[in-house]
Amino acid sequence: MNIRTLSWAAPMTFFVLLWSSAPLFTRWGLNHASVMALLALRFAAALAALLILGWRERAWLPAPGTRWRVAGAGLLMMSCYSVCYFQAMAHGMTPGVLATVLGTQPVLTLLATERRFAPARLAGLLLALCGLALVVWQSLIVARLSGTGVLFSLGALACMTTGALVQSRVKQSPGAVLPLQCAMSLGVCLILGAFQPMQVEWNGTVLVSVLWLGLVVSVGAQMLLYRMMASGNLVNVTSLFYLVPVVTALLDYLVLGNALTGWAMLGMGIIIAGLLVVFRVKKPAA
């Protein structure tokens, strides 16, 4: 294993672990807070942390001439994606169905960014998508789809895919772009909160959930994601999201004691096999 591979393995591992923890803390937070209240508190905590981190250099804004692009990427990837994701769940979409819909993002990214791509890369992505369906199979077979839920899930897919394409062209430090994006996300949540319940039952659980989602996920994991998107192949980076349900299922078992099914373990193996194909096959030269 060469130095370049090792330099990629560490941030990829940390990113998947941190991002995969979000559903557990989101679930705990939603037990004591409404959707918009939890999102607003999350982005407020993230914004405060980013302002403190950037205090020495006062680098809180992107470079002039790029601020509209940065704002647009944040609006899509953070604000609109989060709202669509939570609203899809609120309208009956199970996490398994939602994960499967969002699992098509790497395929769409491949088709959008690589005019010439190796068939093996597409085959690896589709294989990983099949494995993802097995991991969330139990959720899929009991799902009752609603039209509104489907529209919100497709909206989340469109926002994340388009936002990732825009963000990949931003070659700036995450510390310079995230404050603006978190501020916009906080503003969106407060505006939408004027038309929806903003309720919080303050206790230790909701406080830990807000701090974890705001500091660890929205700052730590988001910084790792942006750095990988700026320095690596976008298809490879987005394909890491296939691992998120896998690690989330493992955390669900280790933390909450919910047993893994045979289908889930088989699906995990298929996802890893598909991703190995994706990462081993090089992008063809233009």
Automatic annotation (TrEMBL):
Its main location: membrane. InterPro entries: AA-Vitamin_Transporters, EamA_dom, EmrE-like. Residues 16-136, 148-279 form the EamA domain. The chain crosses the membrane at residues 12-30, 36-56, 68-88, 94-112, 124-143, 149-166, 178-196, 202-225, 237-256, 262-281. One of its GO terms (cellular component) is membrane. It comes from the Bacteria. It is a multi-pass membrane protein. Belongs to the EamA transporter family. This is Drug/metabolite transporter (DMT)-like permease. It comes from Silvimonas terrae. The lineage of its organism: Bacteria, Pseudomonadati, Pseudomonadota, Betaproteobacteria, Neisseriales.
